[in-house]
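Hello,

Our lab assistant flagged a job as stuck in the queue for most of the afternoon. It eventually completed. Since we weren't sure the result was trustworthy after the delay, we are filing this so someone can double-check. Below is the sequence as submitted and the structure that was eventually returned. Let us know if re-running is recommended.
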Amino acid sequence: MTSYRDAGVDLEAASRHVESIAGAVKATWGDGVVGGFGGFAAGIEIPDRYESPVLMMSTDGVGTKLELARRSGLWAGVGFDLAAMCFDDLAAVGAEPLGFVDYLAVGAPSPERDSAIVASIAAACGELGCALLGGETACHPQVMAPDAVDLAGAAVGAVEKGDELGPHRVGPGDVVIGLKSPNLRSNGFSLVRSVFGDELDDHAETLLEPSVIYTPAVLRAKSSGGVHAAAHVTGGGIVENLSRALPHGVGATIDTGAWAPPPVFDLVADRGVSRDDMFATFNMGIGYCLVVGAASAQSACDAVSEHEPTVIGATDRSGAVTLA
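-- returned structure --
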């Protein structure tokens, strides 16, 4: 006879994993959570302050940065990478975080690693004041290598109907404010692994620095007034992502001399990556862009001061985002 455990799935170990993460998950819950831990689904009440709420959703993963985490055994930051990729997308439309669910796939269970990953997600949700409502840890023996890991999540947020940020608010003459990114965040790691080769492990701690989460600052800036649109700078760099925040016929000129990319970007470029490829792949030190009415630029900068905001350009009638 062959059992499920013989095939590589230990249900008793799975139950122990669920028990081990219960405290970290429930610590993110407030009074608005509907449903108990370990059920089939859970919900979150929409705050009463919304008159006509629109629910916004986003999903993403950590990507191949996880390969470096696997090699180094450094898992404490991956939850911040995951939360940032999902909630900072929601913030680009002005949505407040409400709830989050994660999906962790492994080749074989590792109690210490798997608990550390979920604890890091819970820590990120705690910083956002958002409930980690649930998740799934799936074991895929024989399909994934025993030490392989993949991680994804989905976020839900709310914004008042008619109060969304977006291209519909933007016109020529708006100011583009860049928010500093001190590291690579969670993008471009296939290129990173390719160019570092055997040196990859030597720079693991630097390359694995967790993502900044911009959501609280972006929402403060929105509340201060004058923010028209926002762009989360992920894969594709400033040009591709800022273009998504602008209406047809409106472009922007970005002054790349307005800020100095942190040293980690030189660390990558020095291994043979061209300037064009660097700007097309990485955030280059600007992890978020706010598109703001010129009269509101100072108040917006004050609202996001912890991210060292810099005016990096302005919108125009060129119809394209260009780097100068």
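-- support follow-up --
The delay was a queue issue, not a problem with the job. The result is valid. Residues 167-323 form a domain with the Phosphoribosyl-aminoimidazole Synthetase; Chain A, domain 2 fold (CATH 3.90.650.10). The mean pLDDT is 94.
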